[in-house]
Amino acid sequence: MLISIRKVEALLRIQRERIGELADTAPSYYRPYHHTTRSGKSRHIDNPVGLLRQAQDRILQRVLAAISLPERMYGVTRGSIIDHAAAHVGQPVVVTLDIKECFFRTTANKVFAVFKNTVGCSPEIARSFTKLTTINGALPEGAPTSPLLAAAVLAPLFRDLEAFAGRHGLSASMFADDIALSGVHPQDVIAEVIGIIRRHGYGVRARKVHVMPAAARQRLPGTMVNRKVSVDRQYRRLVRRRIATLKGAPEIPEWVSRSIVGQIEHVAFVAPNQAVALRRLASRFLPAAGSDEGRAATQKDPCFCRRGRFEFDSRAALRSRLHDSPSRSDATVRFGGAGIEREDPA
Question: Residue 318, CB half-sphere, CA atoms under 13 Å: how many?
Fold first, then answer.
């Protein structure tokens, strides 16, 4: 139980008056931007800074650390992509689904419930913590508290999903916002699974629902699971090609070296034997250090989207999120009788 404001002062190392002021002015402590990769993909980052970021770090370490998640919810407090993959090795069919805009749809009401009911805070303290860890009625991207809070909100969803899978003889696991089911004919229950997800206030991306029989590549995040946990052959070929293109280059930027080394280390983490040849090839062409000149792996662009703290001014949309109801503007397609959300048309 956390019902004493004095205890909160000690946990956050901030005086109670300052806590209230910080909670009420929390939106002013965000510096949103768009994170754009070399491939052109863009992701909104809310980017908490200053005293708010310090408070969020302490909430994570001293308030949320005791939260217990289901055993097969991986990637936040326990487990890795290897554990997630191991639950589905050698299965006749693997189905994967991706929760759409997980943080954006984890509303302030859901976060308040975690602080009040799961952590055991008094309503007053739960409201303050909710203000400190949400923006515009939802979890912020880039806040240290968001992954664990999202997982805590999703835990009841996963428990329902795991119980449903068990009744149908299927294996279920979750890594962050990626859900995997495997067994005999899991594709036959996709509609019911989506129904469970939607009942908890979330949606599914149509383009990220994948049905993978054993005769095809069965891919989970960063891995393949047909016969054993391994790295996709195409991924390893891509890394080899990246290394080969460096042959004869007069100078290799440091960010390129770091990127390739990171890819090799991923292979080594999942399947050490598959990384041996890549490391040997990299040792021939990659310098120990290179120039960082011209780095363009990622860039930060100013945020002008509706998620930014200055742009989210739609009262109807905000009210919809605060009341845990899906936005009416979401487009849907039909899949086995259940709605799967897709991107709104441009």
Answer: 13
Token output for 16:
């109670």
8 A C-beta contact, residue 121 and residue 129:
yes
Residue 6 has pLDDT above 60, yes or no: yes
Q: Which amino acid is at 123?
A: P
CB 145 within 8 A of CB 173: no
CA separation for the pair 90, 225 (Å, rounded): 7
pLDDT over 60 (residue 172): yes
Report the relative pairing of strands 73-74 and 338-342 from DSSP bridges: unpaired
Residue type (1 letter), 340: I
Of 35, 74, 253, 86, nearest in space to 177 by CA? 74
Structure pTM? 0.81
Q: What are phi and psi of 182, to 5 degrees?
A: -150, 160
Q: Taking residues 145-157, what's their average pLDDT?
A: 97
pLDDT score of 323: 45
pLDDT at 112 over 50: yes
Beta bridge partners of 171: 182
Distance CA(153)–CA(155), nearest Å, equals 6
Which pair of tokens denotes residue 183?
Answer: 């067994």
Using the structure block, give the residue that is written with the tokens 């055991």.
120
Alpha-carbon separation of residue 56 from 62, 95, 303 (angstroms) = 10, 35, 22
CA torsion 320→324→329→335, rounded to 10°?
-170
